[in-house]
Hints:
three-stranded mixed sheet; 33% helix; 27% strand
Amino acid sequence: MIFGALAMIACGDKKEKETEENTTIGNTSTEETTQTRQGDSQDASDSDVVEITIEGNDQMRFNKDEIRVKAGQTVRLTLKHVGQMDKNAMGHNWVLLTQGTGIPEFGGAAVSAKDNDYIPEGTDKVIAHTKMIGGGESATIEFEVPEKGTYDFICSFPGHYSLMKGKFIVE
Ligand code: ZN
């Protein structure tokens, strides 16, 4: 590039000007390329945090029955209650259960834990959970993805787990 510029200058003013323009364009595109690369590397480190949004409604349904993540990631999960009913009538939470935990057994135990957002006190069956929310509310939690495998997630509000459940798959 420098050699070319010097050669052009020797040929006269007009060509020198063209060369300057060309050089400027060249520099600009080089900067853009560099910025893109930096952006990519930032994205790469951010990809360790995966954002997930799941909705619950007044019809007692989640809008997802499967969530896929990768081992080693951090999940930032937001549960949105897109209905209008009160949390005492149609409360929702998002509870990720340990492998081997029976949903009916856990759901049954949760019924008697109303004062603890329907999470049994001192349970070791829960990897992560949001608080219980009502219509129009949302709750966000962050947690480390467990080891590879398939896990169940549910809403532990009494009676909801039969419809409000899905698979959390770690690849
Ligand atoms: Zn629910």
